[in-house]
């Protein structure tokens, strides 16, 4: 494993989820509202995208 791979694995992100979204992502099933899991996943994906797009070493393609 190279140094860059180790640094990438040690980076963290923060995502604010509702209690129901967090529960849904751990496997709790809400029969009435599957949207909790969907919303939680969207928040995580957006946070990852924001982190990767705004990463200081990332080159802008024009």
Brief summary:
The protein has helices at 3-10, 19-25, 35-53. It is an all-alpha fold. The radius of gyration is 16 Å and the shape is elongated.
Question: Could you walk me through the main structural features you see in this protein, from its secondary elements to its overall organization?
Answer:
The protein is mainly α. The protein has three helices and no strands. The protein has helices at 3-10, 19-25, 35-53. Helix 2 packs across helix 3. It is elongated and about 45 Å long.
Outline:
elongated
Gap between N and C termini = 31 Å
Helix content: 40-55%
Q: What structural class do the secondary elements suggest?
A: mainly alpha
* Low-confidence parts: none
Largest sheet: none
Q: What is the mean predicted local confidence, pLDDT?
A: 83
Give me the number of helical elements.
3
Number of separate strands? 0
The proportion of residues in beta strands is under 5%
- Oligomeric form of this entry? single chain
What's the SSE pattern?
A: HHH
**How large is the radius of gyration?**
16 Å
Task: List strands and helices in order, with pairings.
Blueprint (H helix, E strand, L loop, with lengths): L2 H8 L8 H7 L9 H19 L9
Helix pairs in contact: 2-3
Question: What labels would you give this structure?
Answer:
3 helices, 62 residues, mainly alpha, 55% helix
């Amino acid at each position: 494993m190279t140094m860059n791979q180790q640094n990438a694995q040690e980076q963290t992100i923060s995502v604010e989820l509702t209690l129901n979204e967090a529960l849904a992502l751990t496997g709790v099933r809400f029969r009435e509202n599957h949207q909790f899991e969907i919303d939680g996943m969207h928040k995580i994906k957006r946070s990852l995208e924001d982190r990767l797009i705004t990463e200081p070493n990332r080159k802008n393609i024009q």
